[in-house]
Amino acid sequence: MGTKERKQREFAERERQFLDAAYELVSANGLLNLQVSKVAEKCEYAVGTLYQHFASKEDLLLALTTLQSQAHTEMFRRVAQWEARPRERMFAIAVADMIFVRNYPEHFRIAQYALCEVVWRAASAERRQDFLEAGRPIGEIVIGIVRDAVAAGDLALGGMSPEEVCTGLWALCNGIHNLVHAEGVLEDFAVGDSYLLMCRHVQAMLNGLGWQPLADPEDVRATDRLIQRITNEVFHDLCPAQ
Amino acid sequence: MGTKERKQREFAERERQFLDAAYELVSANGLLNLQVSKVAEKCEYAVGTLYQHFASKEDLLLALTTLQSQAHTEMFRRVAQWEARPRERMFAIAVADMIFVRNYPEHFRIAQYALCEVVWRAASAERRQDFLEAGRPIGEIVIGIVRDAVAAGDLALGGMSPEEVCTGLWALCNGIHNLVHAEGVLEDFAVGDSYLLMCRHVQAMLNGLGWQPLADPEDVRATDRLIQRITNEVFHDLCPAQ
DNA sequence: CTCCGATAATGAACCGGATTCAAAATTCGC
DNA sequence: GCGAATTTTGAATCCGGTTCATTATCGGAG
What we know:
By secondary structure, chain A is mostly helical. Chain A contains eleven helices and no strands. Chain A has helices at 3-29, 36-42, 47-53, 57-81, 86-103, 107-114, 117-122, 125-152, 162-181, 191-208, 220-234.
Protein backbone atom coordinates (compact mmCIF):
# COMPACT_ATOMS: atom_id res chain seq x y z
CA MET A 1 0.00 0.00 0.00
CA GLY A 2 2.15 2.82 -1.31
CA THR A 3 -0.74 5.23 -1.55
CA LYS A 4 0.42 7.35 1.33
CA GLU A 5 3.92 7.57 -0.06
CA ARG A 6 2.64 8.58 -3.47
CA LYS A 7 0.46 11.26 -1.93
CA GLN A 8 3.35 12.64 0.03
CA ARG A 9 5.48 12.69 -3.07
CA GLU A 10 2.77 14.43 -5.06
CA PHE A 11 2.30 16.92 -2.27
CA ALA A 12 5.99 17.72 -2.25
CA GLU A 13 6.03 17.98 -6.02
CA ARG A 14 3.20 20.43 -6.00
CA GLU A 15 4.87 22.53 -3.38
CA ARG A 16 7.88 22.67 -5.62
CA GLN A 17 5.64 23.63 -8.53
CA PHE A 18 4.25 26.57 -6.57
CA LEU A 19 7.71 27.72 -5.64
CA ASP A 20 8.96 27.49 -9.20
CA ALA A 21 5.95 29.40 -10.44
CA ALA A 22 6.48 32.08 -7.83
CA TYR A 23 10.09 32.47 -8.85
CA GLU A 24 9.15 32.78 -12.49
CA LEU A 25 6.55 35.39 -11.71
CA VAL A 26 9.03 37.38 -9.66
CA SER A 27 11.55 37.17 -12.49
CA ALA A 28 8.96 38.35 -14.95
CA ASN A 29 7.12 41.04 -13.00
CA GLY A 30 9.18 41.83 -9.94
CA LEU A 31 8.54 40.97 -6.31
CA LEU A 32 6.31 44.01 -5.97
CA ASN A 33 3.75 42.55 -8.33
CA LEU A 34 3.71 39.03 -7.01
CA GLN A 35 0.16 37.92 -6.22
CA VAL A 36 -0.70 34.69 -4.49
CA SER A 37 -3.68 34.17 -6.77
CA LYS A 38 -1.45 34.41 -9.83
CA VAL A 39 0.92 31.80 -8.47
CA ALA A 40 -1.99 29.42 -7.97
CA GLU A 41 -3.41 30.26 -11.37
CA LYS A 42 -0.07 29.62 -13.07
CA CYS A 43 -0.06 26.12 -11.59
CA GLU A 44 -3.75 25.63 -12.47
CA TYR A 45 -4.84 25.28 -8.88
CA ALA A 46 -7.19 27.32 -6.75
CA VAL A 47 -5.77 29.64 -4.10
CA GLY A 48 -7.14 27.42 -1.37
CA THR A 49 -4.89 24.62 -2.54
CA LEU A 50 -1.85 26.83 -2.36
CA TYR A 51 -2.81 27.70 1.19
CA GLN A 52 -2.63 24.04 2.13
CA HIS A 53 1.09 24.33 1.55
CA PHE A 54 1.91 27.78 2.80
CA ALA A 55 0.59 29.59 5.82
CA SER A 56 0.86 32.94 4.08
CA LYS A 57 2.41 34.74 1.18
CA GLU A 58 5.44 35.42 3.32
CA ASP A 59 5.68 31.77 4.19
CA LEU A 60 5.90 31.02 0.49
CA LEU A 61 8.63 33.58 -0.01
CA LEU A 62 10.69 32.23 2.83
CA ALA A 63 10.22 28.69 1.51
CA LEU A 64 11.45 29.86 -1.88
CA THR A 65 14.49 31.47 -0.28
CA THR A 66 15.21 28.28 1.60
CA LEU A 67 14.88 26.13 -1.52
CA GLN A 68 17.48 28.21 -3.29
CA SER A 69 19.73 28.30 -0.25
CA GLN A 70 19.74 24.53 -0.39
CA ALA A 71 21.07 24.66 -3.93
CA HIS A 72 23.69 27.10 -2.69
CA THR A 73 24.64 24.78 0.15
CA GLU A 74 24.88 21.87 -2.26
CA MET A 75 27.49 23.76 -4.25
CA PHE A 76 29.47 24.46 -1.12
CA ARG A 77 29.38 20.79 -0.22
CA ARG A 78 31.02 19.96 -3.51
CA VAL A 79 33.78 22.40 -2.75
CA ALA A 80 34.29 20.79 0.64
CA GLN A 81 34.74 17.47 -1.11
CA TRP A 82 37.07 18.82 -3.76
CA GLU A 83 40.66 17.72 -3.35
CA ALA A 84 42.72 20.88 -3.28
CA ARG A 85 44.71 23.16 -1.02
CA PRO A 86 42.73 25.24 1.45
CA ARG A 87 43.38 28.45 -0.41
CA GLU A 88 42.15 26.90 -3.64
CA ARG A 89 39.06 25.57 -1.93
CA MET A 90 38.39 29.01 -0.50
CA PHE A 91 38.68 30.51 -3.92
CA ALA A 92 36.31 27.81 -5.16
CA ILE A 93 33.78 29.05 -2.60
CA ALA A 94 33.84 32.44 -4.28
CA VAL A 95 33.45 30.80 -7.67
CA ALA A 96 30.49 28.81 -6.33
CA ASP A 97 28.91 32.03 -5.19
CA MET A 98 29.44 33.61 -8.57
CA ILE A 99 27.85 30.69 -10.42
CA PHE A 100 25.01 30.49 -7.92
CA VAL A 101 24.00 34.07 -8.46
CA ARG A 102 24.28 33.67 -12.19
CA ASN A 103 21.85 30.74 -11.99
CA TYR A 104 19.42 32.40 -9.58
CA PRO A 105 19.63 36.08 -10.44
CA GLU A 106 16.64 37.02 -8.29
CA HIS A 107 17.77 35.10 -5.25
CA PHE A 108 19.36 37.89 -3.27
CA ARG A 109 16.57 40.30 -3.97
CA ILE A 110 14.03 37.82 -2.64
CA ALA A 111 16.21 36.70 0.25
CA GLN A 112 16.90 40.25 1.33
CA TYR A 113 13.16 40.81 1.51
CA ALA A 114 12.35 37.45 3.07
CA LEU A 115 14.80 38.03 5.90
CA CYS A 116 13.35 41.39 6.85
CA GLU A 117 11.48 41.36 10.10
CA VAL A 118 8.20 42.01 8.31
CA VAL A 119 8.39 38.89 6.20
CA TRP A 120 10.36 36.68 8.56
CA ARG A 121 7.89 37.11 11.39
CA ALA A 122 4.94 36.52 9.09
CA ALA A 123 6.31 33.16 7.98
CA SER A 124 5.62 30.03 9.99
CA ALA A 125 8.01 28.90 12.69
CA GLU A 126 8.65 25.73 10.73
CA ARG A 127 9.81 27.59 7.62
CA ARG A 128 12.08 29.74 9.69
CA GLN A 129 13.57 26.66 11.20
CA ASP A 130 14.04 25.14 7.73
CA PHE A 131 15.80 28.24 6.54
CA LEU A 132 18.19 28.31 9.44
CA GLU A 133 19.00 24.65 8.96
CA ALA A 134 19.56 25.04 5.24
CA GLY A 135 22.13 27.72 5.89
CA ARG A 136 24.03 26.10 8.71
CA PRO A 137 26.26 23.83 6.59
CA ILE A 138 27.45 26.84 4.61
CA GLY A 139 29.08 28.28 7.68
CA GLU A 140 30.46 24.93 8.73
CA ILE A 141 32.06 24.28 5.39
CA VAL A 142 33.79 27.63 5.23
CA ILE A 143 34.91 27.34 8.82
CA GLY A 144 36.36 23.94 7.95
CA ILE A 145 38.41 25.44 5.17
CA VAL A 146 39.72 28.16 7.45
CA ARG A 147 40.66 25.57 10.07
CA ASP A 148 42.49 23.52 7.44
CA ALA A 149 44.35 26.60 6.37
CA VAL A 150 45.39 27.41 9.89
CA ALA A 151 46.49 23.81 10.40
CA ALA A 152 48.51 23.98 7.18
CA GLY A 153 50.16 27.06 8.61
CA ASP A 154 49.24 29.49 5.87
CA LEU A 155 46.74 31.55 7.81
CA ALA A 156 47.20 33.55 10.98
CA LEU A 157 43.93 34.64 12.50
CA GLY A 158 45.47 37.24 14.76
CA GLY A 159 43.26 36.61 17.72
CA MET A 160 40.10 35.89 15.79
CA SER A 161 38.37 32.54 15.84
CA PRO A 162 37.67 30.73 12.56
CA GLU A 163 33.98 31.48 13.17
CA GLU A 164 34.64 35.18 13.40
CA VAL A 165 36.73 35.16 10.27
CA CYS A 166 33.91 33.41 8.45
CA THR A 167 31.36 35.86 9.75
CA GLY A 168 33.47 38.62 8.27
CA LEU A 169 33.82 36.93 4.93
CA TRP A 170 30.14 36.16 4.87
CA ALA A 171 29.26 39.74 5.75
CA LEU A 172 31.53 41.08 3.06
CA CYS A 173 30.08 38.85 0.35
CA ASN A 174 26.52 39.42 1.44
CA GLY A 175 27.11 43.11 1.73
CA ILE A 176 28.31 43.21 -1.85
CA HIS A 177 25.42 41.07 -3.08
CA ASN A 178 23.00 43.37 -1.33
CA LEU A 179 24.67 46.46 -2.66
CA VAL A 180 24.50 45.12 -6.17
CA HIS A 181 20.92 43.98 -5.92
CA ALA A 182 19.59 46.84 -3.83
CA GLU A 183 17.30 49.01 -5.82
CA GLY A 184 18.72 52.30 -6.83
CA VAL A 185 21.76 52.25 -4.66
CA LEU A 186 24.13 51.18 -7.37
CA GLU A 187 21.90 51.37 -10.39
CA ASP A 188 24.64 51.56 -12.95
CA PHE A 189 26.78 48.85 -11.46
CA ALA A 190 27.07 45.77 -13.66
CA VAL A 191 26.56 42.55 -11.74
CA GLY A 192 29.43 40.98 -13.64
CA ASP A 193 31.86 43.56 -12.33
CA SER A 194 30.74 43.01 -8.80
CA TYR A 195 32.23 39.54 -8.60
CA LEU A 196 35.59 40.73 -9.65
CA LEU A 197 35.24 43.34 -6.95
CA MET A 198 34.07 40.84 -4.41
CA CYS A 199 36.96 38.50 -5.19
CA ARG A 200 39.43 41.30 -4.84
CA HIS A 201 38.06 42.26 -1.49
CA VAL A 202 38.01 38.75 -0.20
CA GLN A 203 41.58 38.51 -1.38
CA ALA A 204 42.45 41.73 0.44
CA MET A 205 40.83 40.48 3.59
CA LEU A 206 42.61 37.16 3.40
CA ASN A 207 45.88 38.88 2.64
CA GLY A 208 45.31 40.80 5.83
CA LEU A 209 45.22 37.46 7.63
CA GLY A 210 48.49 36.43 6.05
CA TRP A 211 47.15 34.30 3.25
CA GLN A 212 49.29 34.54 0.15
CA PRO A 213 47.37 35.08 -3.08
CA LEU A 214 47.06 32.16 -5.45
CA ALA A 215 48.24 34.24 -8.34
CA ASP A 216 49.69 37.64 -8.93
CA PRO A 217 46.64 39.85 -8.27
CA GLU A 218 47.58 42.08 -11.18
CA ASP A 219 47.41 39.14 -13.56
CA VAL A 220 43.78 38.98 -14.59
CA ARG A 221 44.47 36.09 -16.96
CA ALA A 222 45.71 33.86 -14.17
CA THR A 223 42.57 34.51 -12.14
CA ASP A 224 40.39 33.76 -15.13
CA ARG A 225 42.22 30.50 -15.72
CA LEU A 226 41.73 29.51 -12.13
CA ILE A 227 38.02 30.26 -12.30
CA GLN A 228 37.81 28.21 -15.46
CA ARG A 229 39.59 25.28 -13.88
CA ILE A 230 37.32 25.25 -10.83
CA THR A 231 34.26 25.58 -13.01
CA ASN A 232 35.32 22.54 -15.02
CA GLU A 233 36.44 20.41 -12.13
CA VAL A 234 33.65 21.13 -9.68
CA PHE A 235 30.64 22.79 -11.27
CA HIS A 236 30.67 21.60 -14.90
CA ASP A 237 26.99 20.59 -14.85
CA LEU A 238 25.77 23.85 -13.32
CA CYS A 239 27.13 26.10 -16.00
CA PRO A 240 25.37 26.53 -19.29
CA ALA A 241 27.73 25.72 -22.11
CA GLN A 242 29.02 29.00 -23.41
CA MET B 1 4.23 88.74 5.13
CA GLY B 2 5.92 85.71 6.62
CA THR B 3 2.73 83.67 6.58
CA LYS B 4 3.90 81.44 3.80
CA GLU B 5 7.19 80.80 5.50
CA ARG B 6 5.52 79.92 8.75
CA LYS B 7 3.21 77.48 6.97
CA GLN B 8 6.13 75.82 5.28
CA ARG B 9 7.94 75.52 8.56
CA GLU B 10 4.88 74.04 10.23
CA PHE B 11 4.47 71.62 7.37
CA ALA B 12 8.06 70.47 7.72
CA GLU B 13 7.66 70.17 11.48
CA ARG B 14 4.61 68.02 11.12
CA GLU B 15 6.35 65.77 8.66
CA ARG B 16 9.07 65.33 11.20
CA GLN B 17 6.44 64.57 13.83
CA PHE B 18 4.99 61.80 11.70
CA LEU B 19 8.41 60.32 11.12
CA ASP B 20 9.29 60.40 14.79
CA ALA B 21 5.97 58.80 15.69
CA ALA B 22 6.52 56.09 13.10
CA TYR B 23 9.95 55.35 14.50
CA GLU B 24 8.60 55.12 18.02
CA LEU B 25 5.85 52.77 16.93
CA VAL B 26 8.34 50.57 15.14
CA SER B 27 10.53 50.52 18.22
CA ALA B 28 7.58 49.61 20.37
CA ASN B 29 5.71 47.10 18.20
CA GLY B 30 8.00 46.12 15.37
CA LEU B 31 7.86 47.05 11.72
CA LEU B 32 5.40 44.24 11.08
CA ASN B 33 2.74 45.94 13.16
CA LEU B 34 3.21 49.45 11.89
CA GLN B 35 -0.10 50.92 10.73
CA VAL B 36 -0.46 54.21 8.97
CA SER B 37 -3.60 55.01 10.92
CA LYS B 38 -1.75 54.53 14.22
CA VAL B 39 0.99 56.91 13.16
CA ALA B 40 -1.60 59.57 12.38
CA GLU B 41 -3.44 58.85 15.60
CA LYS B 42 -0.27 59.14 17.66
CA CYS B 43 0.23 62.64 16.25
CA GLU B 44 -3.47 63.48 16.73
CA TYR B 45 -4.12 63.96 13.05
CA ALA B 46 -6.40 62.15 10.65
CA VAL B 47 -4.93 59.75 8.12
CA GLY B 48 -5.77 62.12 5.31
CA THR B 49 -3.41 64.68 6.77
CA LEU B 50 -0.60 62.15 6.87
CA TYR B 51 -1.26 61.44 3.22
CA GLN B 52 -0.62 65.08 2.40
CA HIS B 53 2.96 64.40 3.31
CA PHE B 54 3.56 60.89 2.11
CA ALA B 55 2.43 59.22 -1.07
CA SER B 56 2.18 55.85 0.63
CA LYS B 57 3.21 53.89 3.66
CA GLU B 58 6.38 52.90 1.84
CA ASP B 59 7.08 56.53 1.07
CA LEU B 60 6.96 57.25 4.78
CA LEU B 61 9.36 54.42 5.55
CA LEU B 62 11.83 55.56 2.96
CA ALA B 63 11.56 59.12 4.27
CA LEU B 64 12.30 57.83 7.75
CA THR B 65 15.32 55.94 6.48
CA THR B 66 16.55 59.06 4.72
CA LEU B 67 16.10 61.21 7.80
CA GLN B 68 18.27 58.89 9.83
CA SER B 69 20.81 58.61 7.05
CA GLN B 70 21.17 62.34 7.25
CA ALA B 71 22.09 62.08 10.91
CA HIS B 72 24.58 59.40 9.93
CA THR B 73 26.05 61.62 7.24
CA GLU B 74 26.31 64.47 9.69
CA MET B 75 28.49 62.35 11.92
CA PHE B 76 30.73 61.47 9.03
CA ARG B 77 31.10 65.12 8.17
CA ARG B 78 32.43 65.80 11.62
CA VAL B 79 35.00 63.09 11.14
CA ALA B 80 36.04 64.65 7.84
CA GLN B 81 36.60 67.91 9.68
CA TRP B 82 38.49 66.35 12.56
CA GLU B 83 42.20 67.08 12.53
CA ALA B 84 43.91 63.73 12.65
CA ARG B 85 45.92 61.28 10.60
CA PRO B 86 44.02 59.40 7.91
CA ARG B 87 44.16 56.13 9.79
CA GLU B 88 42.74 57.80 12.88
CA ARG B 89 40.01 59.41 10.84
CA MET B 90 39.16 56.06 9.31
CA PHE B 91 38.92 54.55 12.73
CA ALA B 92 36.71 57.44 13.74
CA ILE B 93 34.37 56.46 10.92
CA ALA B 94 33.92 53.08 12.54
CA VAL B 95 33.32 54.74 15.89
CA ALA B 96 30.74 57.02 14.27
CA ASP B 97 28.98 53.97 12.94
CA MET B 98 28.98 52.35 16.32
CA ILE B 99 27.49 55.41 18.01
CA PHE B 100 24.98 55.88 15.23
CA VAL B 101 23.57 52.40 15.62
CA ARG B 102 23.46 52.78 19.36
CA ASN B 103 21.37 55.92 18.92
CA TYR B 104 19.08 54.52 16.24
CA PRO B 105 18.84 50.85 17.07
CA GLU B 106 16.03 50.20 14.61
CA HIS B 107 17.67 52.01 11.72
CA PHE B 108 19.18 49.08 9.90
CA ARG B 109 16.13 46.95 10.28
CA ILE B 110 14.00 49.66 8.71
CA ALA B 111 16.56 50.55 6.07
CA GLN B 112 17.02 46.95 5.03
CA TYR B 113 13.30 46.77 4.44
CA ALA B 114 12.98 50.18 2.83
CA LEU B 115 15.66 49.37 0.29
CA CYS B 116 14.01 46.17 -0.85
CA GLU B 117 12.51 46.38 -4.30
CA VAL B 118 9.00 46.04 -2.89
CA VAL B 119 9.27 49.13 -0.74
CA TRP B 120 11.70 51.14 -2.82
CA ARG B 121 9.53 50.96 -5.91
CA ALA B 122 6.42 51.84 -3.96
CA ALA B 123 7.97 55.05 -2.67
CA SER B 124 7.82 58.25 -4.68
CA ALA B 125 10.59 59.14 -7.10
CA GLU B 126 11.32 62.24 -5.04
CA ARG B 127 11.93 60.28 -1.85
CA ARG B 128 14.19 57.90 -3.68
CA GLN B 129 16.14 60.84 -4.97
CA ASP B 130 16.38 62.29 -1.47
CA PHE B 131 17.67 59.03 -0.13
CA LEU B 132 20.36 58.72 -2.75
CA GLU B 133 21.46 62.29 -2.14
CA ALA B 134 21.57 61.85 1.61
CA GLY B 135 23.91 58.92 1.21
CA ARG B 136 26.26 60.35 -1.35
CA PRO B 137 28.46 62.39 1.03
CA ILE B 138 29.12 59.30 3.11
CA GLY B 139 30.91 57.70 0.21
CA GLU B 140 32.72 60.89 -0.65
CA ILE B 141 34.02 61.38 2.86
CA VAL B 142 35.36 57.87 3.16
CA ILE B 143 36.91 58.07 -0.30
CA GLY B 144 38.56 61.30 0.77
CA ILE B 145 40.14 59.61 3.74
CA VAL B 146 41.41 56.78 1.58
CA ARG B 147 42.89 59.26 -0.88
CA ASP B 148 44.61 61.14 1.93
CA ALA B 149 46.04 57.88 3.18
CA VAL B 150 47.37 56.99 -0.24
CA ALA B 151 48.86 60.47 -0.57
CA ALA B 152 50.49 60.11 2.84
CA GLY B 153 51.99 56.89 1.57
CA ASP B 154 50.54 54.56 4.16
CA LEU B 155 48.09 52.73 1.95
CA ALA B 156 48.68 50.69 -1.17
CA LEU B 157 45.50 49.91 -3.03
CA GLY B 158 47.01 47.16 -5.11
CA GLY B 159 45.22 47.98 -8.31
CA MET B 160 41.94 49.02 -6.73
CA SER B 161 40.57 52.51 -6.93
CA PRO B 162 39.70 54.40 -3.74
CA GLU B 163 36.05 54.00 -4.75
CA GLU B 164 36.38 50.25 -4.94
CA VAL B 165 38.08 50.08 -1.59
CA CYS B 166 35.27 52.10 -0.09
CA THR B 167 32.66 49.90 -1.67
CA GLY B 168 34.31 46.95 0.00
CA LEU B 169 34.45 48.62 3.38
CA TRP B 170 30.88 49.73 3.03
CA ALA B 171 29.77 46.25 2.03
CA LEU B 172 31.60 44.71 4.96
CA CYS B 173 30.08 47.07 7.49
CA ASN B 174 26.63 46.83 6.03
CA GLY B 175 26.90 43.09 5.78
CA ILE B 176 27.67 42.90 9.47
CA HIS B 177 24.89 45.32 10.38
CA ASN B 178 22.46 43.25 8.35
CA LEU B 179 23.68 40.02 9.87
CA VAL B 180 23.25 41.40 13.33
CA HIS B 181 19.84 42.89 12.70
CA ALA B 182 18.48 40.15 10.47
CA GLU B 183 15.78 38.24 12.19
CA GLY B 184 16.75 34.84 13.36
CA VAL B 185 19.99 34.57 11.51
CA LEU B 186 22.15 35.41 14.47
CA GLU B 187 19.60 35.46 17.22
CA ASP B 188 22.01 34.98 20.05
CA PHE B 189 24.56 37.47 18.81
CA ALA B 190 24.91 40.51 21.04
CA VAL B 191 24.91 43.77 19.10
CA GLY B 192 27.69 45.07 21.31
CA ASP B 193 30.01 42.27 20.26
CA SER B 194 29.35 42.91 16.64
CA TYR B 195 31.16 46.23 16.62
CA LEU B 196 34.23 44.76 18.03
CA LEU B 197 33.95 42.17 15.30
CA MET B 198 33.31 44.77 12.65
CA CYS B 199 36.29 46.82 13.76
CA ARG B 200 38.53 43.79 13.67
CA HIS B 201 37.44 42.94 10.18
CA VAL B 202 37.87 46.44 8.91
CA GLN B 203 41.29 46.36 10.48
CA ALA B 204 42.04 43.05 8.75
CA MET B 205 40.90 44.45 5.43
CA LEU B 206 42.97 47.56 5.84
CA ASN B 207 45.96 45.54 6.94
CA GLY B 208 45.55 43.67 3.68
CA LEU B 209 45.96 46.99 1.92
CA GLY B 210 49.13 47.71 3.85
CA TRP B 211 47.69 49.96 6.48
CA GLN B 212 49.48 49.52 9.79
CA PRO B 213 47.17 49.15 12.79
CA LEU B 214 46.90 52.09 15.15
CA ALA B 215 47.54 49.87 18.11
CA ASP B 216 48.57 46.34 18.81
CA PRO B 217 45.42 44.43 17.79
CA GLU B 218 45.83 42.11 20.76
CA ASP B 219 45.66 45.06 23.14
CA VAL B 220 41.98 45.57 23.77
CA ARG B 221 42.67 48.36 26.23
CA ALA B 222 44.43 50.47 23.63
CA THR B 223 41.48 50.15 21.26
CA ASP B 224 39.07 51.11 24.01
CA ARG B 225 41.15 54.16 24.86
CA LEU B 226 41.14 55.22 21.23
CA ILE B 227 37.38 54.82 20.99
CA GLN B 228 37.02 56.88 24.13
CA ARG B 229 39.24 59.62 22.79
CA ILE B 230 37.33 59.87 19.53
CA THR B 231 34.03 59.85 21.35
CA ASN B 232 35.16 62.76 23.50
CA GLU B 233 36.79 64.78 20.79
CA VAL B 234 34.23 64.34 18.04
CA PHE B 235 30.93 62.98 19.28
CA HIS B 236 30.69 64.17 22.88
CA ASP B 237 27.15 65.53 22.45
CA LEU B 238 25.79 62.41 20.77
CA CYS B 239 26.62 60.01 23.55
CA PRO B 240 24.45 59.75 26.62
CA ALA B 241 26.58 60.32 29.70
CA GLN B 242 27.35 56.92 31.13
C1' DC C 1 -15.77 92.62 13.24
C1' DT C 2 -17.64 90.01 9.41
C1' DC C 3 -17.62 87.97 5.25
C1' DC C 4 -15.60 85.20 1.51
C1' DG C 5 -12.61 82.50 -1.18
C1' DA C 6 -8.75 79.62 -0.57
C1' DT C 7 -6.49 76.24 1.81
C1' DA C 8 -6.13 72.37 4.97
C1' DA C 9 -8.07 68.63 7.83
C1' DT C 10 -11.24 65.07 8.41
C1' DG C 11 -12.72 60.26 8.56
C1' DA C 12 -16.22 57.35 6.42
C1' DA C 13 -16.24 54.87 2.29
C1' DC C 14 -13.68 52.51 -1.06
C1' DC C 15 -10.63 49.08 -2.91
C1' DG C 16 -7.43 45.41 -3.76
C1' DG C 17 -5.50 41.49 -2.52
C1' DA C 18 -4.50 38.08 1.15
C1' DT C 19 -6.92 34.68 3.61
C1' DT C 20 -10.84 31.59 5.00
C1' DC C 21 -14.14 28.02 4.92
C1' DA C 22 -18.55 25.84 3.62
C1' DA C 23 -19.75 23.29 -0.20
C1' DA C 24 -18.48 20.29 -4.11
C1' DA C 25 -15.47 16.98 -5.99
C1' DT C 26 -12.40 13.34 -5.68
C1' DT C 27 -10.15 9.42 -3.73
C1' DC C 28 -9.79 5.12 -1.37
C1' DG C 29 -10.69 0.85 0.80
C1' DC C 30 -14.21 -2.33 1.11
C1' DG D 1 -20.54 0.59 -6.62
C1' DC D 2 -20.83 2.74 -2.07
C1' DG D 3 -19.95 5.83 1.68
C1' DA D 4 -16.53 7.91 4.62
C1' DA D 5 -12.46 10.55 4.45
C1' DT D 6 -9.76 13.61 2.19
C1' DT D 7 -8.85 17.22 -1.11
C1' DT D 8 -10.04 21.03 -3.96
C1' DT D 9 -12.57 24.91 -4.93
C1' DG D 10 -13.53 29.90 -5.34
C1' DA D 11 -16.92 33.08 -3.56
C1' DA D 12 -17.11 35.58 0.59
C1' DT D 13 -14.65 37.76 4.26
C1' DC D 14 -11.39 40.62 6.28
C1' DC D 15 -8.02 44.01 6.80
C1' DG D 16 -5.53 47.90 6.35
C1' DG D 17 -3.91 51.29 2.93
C1' DT D 18 -5.77 54.95 0.24
C1' DT D 19 -9.20 58.38 -1.53
C1' DC D 20 -12.12 62.27 -1.71
C1' DA D 21 -16.48 64.71 -0.72
C1' DT D 22 -17.47 67.30 3.16
C1' DT D 23 -16.31 70.31 6.96
C1' DA D 24 -13.37 73.36 9.40
C1' DT D 25 -9.84 76.80 9.49
C1' DC D 26 -7.30 80.61 7.89
C1' DG D 27 -5.99 85.18 6.14
C1' DG D 28 -6.98 89.19 3.92
C1' DA D 29 -10.55 92.73 2.19
C1' DG D 30 -14.11 95.65 3.22
